[in-house]
TrEMBL record:
Free-text function comment from the UniProt entry: Catalyzes two sequential steps in the biosynthesis of coenzyme A. In the first step cysteine is conjugated to 4'-phosphopantothenate to form 4-phosphopantothenoylcysteine. In the second step the latter compound is decarboxylated to form 4'-phosphopantotheine.
Domain of life of the organism encoding this protein: Bacteria
Keywords: Decarboxylase, Flavoprotein, FMN, Ligase, Lyase, Magnesium, Metal-binding, Multifunctional enzyme
Stated name of the protein: Coenzyme A biosynthesis bifunctional protein CoaBC
Catalytic activity: N-[(R)-4-phosphopantothenoyl]-L-cysteine + H(+) = (R)-4'-phosphopantetheine + CO2; (R)-4'-phosphopantothenate + L-cysteine + CTP = N-[(R)-4-phosphopantothenoyl]-L-cysteine + CMP + diphosphate + H(+)
Binding site for CTP: 301, 311, 329-332, 352, 370, 374
Length: 430
């Protein structure tokens, strides 16, 4: 796919470097077209090195190749991130005083603009009118996120994270054949043509639109006393990546987060929990009308039989501490049993298994045995250890399917790539 990545002069230009890497590492051909102001934030050598192509802001560079026309004509998608208030105004009014704005005028492919600016600028009547004009013409404008801006300011106007932008662009392109044509006087806002969001529940024309997905993430904590707990090393990164990927496909996503310190994908419904029993209650409730449940959280297998009301003190005699543990319920088995009791085929249930090999069997030996016990439709198995999986940005998984001996291995790859592979495996069952 031939991507034109436009970058305008905002502090969020640094995020576009990561967006560029996401496109190039996925095999897409990317031409970066910055504005002159953007080069005050990220220099041309950086864009050239990351894209592998020369970078220019002027229509007069290589003029014999007519770049102000050619770049837009040959693109499969044009993405501008960040898009400042100035670029939005120029695009809305058809002004073309540099290579980027000329490219926007000549492009006949999908155009995606990701605004980023201070809150007051975003809410200004002129900016909102320009956005309305662009959306009315069929330009896809991604809503900015809310959060920390330049300096101490906080509010709407933050550029969404590169992973969210990348997923939103891919979801838009996948759904493009089903998208309605641009209208001259189209409505503005949620559901309107041209309205795109990096938020989960509102991805325009997503292929999973109308589906409800529930994802769990993180690791539960079982309190010993008001200070201490039994827990595990799960960061929740894989579960959050799956929630983000499902959101990008247009699904209505609920993320049940067990002690996750990561920001949730914008717009995903988050249910925070602490213990395994709380996780079980939240998952059972959320799964009752879901199409797909992905149990990516790591619930504790055991919990203390009793929780002490006050902090446990260290003994003077060095005798140590003895704990009585009781077994926690198996949440996946409970979800499978609940589905069977209703005589239903939904939700499709995906379980995760974090395994280590030992003297009694390999990782896959233990994974197959666990898969048989749990009764889920798919099982995603990863090998864990002190230097594997937990807290890392990459992962290697083995996907097992009910009724098949085939094992699909994905990775080493980013957790976003693994997330898409898991959803791709689940899709035929939906």
């Amino acid at each position: 796919m031939r991507v034109v990545l436009g970058v305008s002069g905002g502090i969020a230009a640094y995020k576009a470097c990561s967006l560029l890497r996401l496109f190039t590492e996925s095999g897409h051909d990317v031409t970066v077209v910055p504005t002159a102001a953007a080069l005050n934030f990220v220099g041309a050598p950086t864009w050239a090195a990351l894209s592998g192509k020369p970078v220019s802001t002027e229509v007069w560079t290589d003029v014999h190749e007519v770049p102000h026309v050619r770049i837009g004509q040959q693109a499969d998608v044009v993405v501008v991130a960040p898009a400042t208030a100035d670029v939005l105004a120029k695009a809305a009014h058809g002004l073309a005083d540099d290579l980027l704005t000329n490219t926007l005028l000549t492009a006949r492919c999908p155009v995606v603009l990701a605004p980023a600016m201070h809150t007051e600028m975003w809410h200004h009547a002129a900016t909102q009118a320009n956005v309305a004009t662009l959306r009315g013409r069929g330009v896809h404008v991604i809503d900015p996120a809310e959060g920390r801006l330049t300096g101490k300011d906080t509010g709407a106007g933050r550029l969404p994270e590169p992973e969210e932008l990348y997923a939103a662009v891919l979801a838009l392109l996948e759904a493009a054949p089903d998208a309605p044509p641009a209208l001259e006087d189209a409505p503005v806002g949620e559901g309107a043509p041209g309205h795109v969001s990096a938020r989960a529940g509102s991805a325009a024309y997503g292929p999973w639109s109308g589906r409800k997905v529930v994802v769990s993430a993180g690791g539960t904590r079982e309190p010993l006393d008001p200070v201490r707990f039994l827990g595990n090393r799960s960061s929740g990164k894989q579960g959050v990546a799956i929630a983000r990927a499902a959101a990008a496909r247009g699904a209505d996503v609920t993320l049940v987060a067990a002690n996750v310190a990561l920001p949730a994908p914008d717009g995903v419904r988050v249910v925070p929990v602490g213990t395994t029993l709380e996780l079980q209650e939240a998952m059972t409730k959320a799964a009752s009308d879901a199409d797909l449940v992905v149990m990516a959280a790591a619930p504790a297998d055991f919990r203390p039989a009793t929780m002490q009301a006050s902090k446990i003190k260290k003994g003077e005699d060095g005798s140590g501490l003895r704990l009585e543990l009781v077994e926690n319920p198996d949440i996946v088995k409970g979800l499978v049993a609940d589905r069977a009791s209703r005589g239903a085929s939904r939700p499709v249930i995906v379980s995760f298994a974090a395994e280590t090999g030992d003297a009694t069997g390999s990782v896959l030996d233990h994974a197959r045995a666990k898969f048989a016990r749990k009764g889920s439709d798919l099982q995603v198995t990863n090998e864990v250890g002190f230097d594997k999986t937990f807290g890392r940005d990459d992962n290697t998984v083995h996907i097992l399917s009910r009724g098949s001996d085939e094992v699909r291995t994905v990775g080493p790859a980013s957790k976003d790539v693994v997330a898409d592979a898991v959803l791709d495996a689940a899709e035929p069952l939906l």
